[in-house]
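Entry 14. Structure prediction run on the chain below.
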Amino acid sequence: DLGYPNVLNAFWLCHGYAWLENNLVRQAIVVDRIDYTYEVPGARLSIPSHSAPVGFRIHPVDAPEDTQNPFGQVNVFLGHLTGQIVPAHIISFLRQNQPSLPQLPYVMIVHMTARGRTDSGDAIVSNEIRYTIEWIPGTTFPF
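Output returned:
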């Protein structure tokens, strides 16, 4: 990865993948949002958090083998998080608060959790997924 943003990425898309697996028996999970929190080591301010609404169902581990699932295993979801890891309003916040951030290049750690409900209505939260993004100076992103 050449960092984010980079001169080869004309659209400034910030994307990654999330692998979610349901190991419950006889209960699917409907995931309705992914929460993001941000950490910039050395920053003198806190970065606001962000939530992205989603809507997908993850079958239980004991779902029949012939259950339709484009991700292989019946109890797995593989999501492509294009444009959601660092959305435009967070980028604007970073631009507006540049004096309180480390000098470029610097690293941002993104913490993500998926939230949803089981078939019985219980709230459920995934383990944390982390991405590290390196913010670099460049001609395509006027920081």
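Confidence is low (pLDDT under 50) at residues 1-7, 139-143.
Filed with the rest of this week's runs.
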